Amino acid sequence: MNSVEPKISIVIPNFNRGELLSSTLDSVLRQNYNNWEALVVDDGSSDNSLDIGAAYAANDKRISIIKRDRNPSGAPVCRNIGIEKSTGDYIIFLDSDD
């Protein structure tokens, strides 16, 4: 029997959390479960969040950075965008300061 572990989509809304985003993504990377994708959905940050996220995405194909492409703004909209873009079997939300 060949069973495949289900893929987990981790949706992370982000707004100006550059100082915390590295810790959040490092936490995801330290997990024992490996079949996941992390979708950082940026809500129009004006800090270095996008640069930090892009550096992580360049080093791990499971991490992607998505810019909010519609209004209104806010974490709920970013979560919905993450859900729409996810490819996992299950979805979990993680705040950018967790």
Q: What do these coordinates show?
A:
It is a single chain. The longest helix is centred in the N-terminal third of the chain and has 12 residues, at 18-29. The mean pLDDT is 94. α1 runs parallel beside α2. It contains three helices and four strands, in the order βαβαβαβ. 35% of the residues lie in helices and 23% in strands. It has helices at 18-29, 49-59, 75-85; strands at 8-14, 36-42, 63-67, 90-93. α1 links the parallel β1 (8-14) and β2. The chain is α/β, with parallel strands linked by helices and 98 residues long. The relative contact order is 0.32. It has a four-stranded parallel beta sheet. The radius of gyration is 13 Å and the shape is globular.
Strand order of the largest sheet: 3-2-1-4
* Main structural class: alpha/beta
The overall pLDDT, averaged over residues, is: 94
Low-confidence stretches: none
Give the ordered list of helices and strands: EHEHEHE
**Residues in helix, %:** 25-40%
How large is the radius of gyration?
13 Å
What's the short story on this structure?
With 98 residues, the protein is α/β, with parallel strands linked by helices.
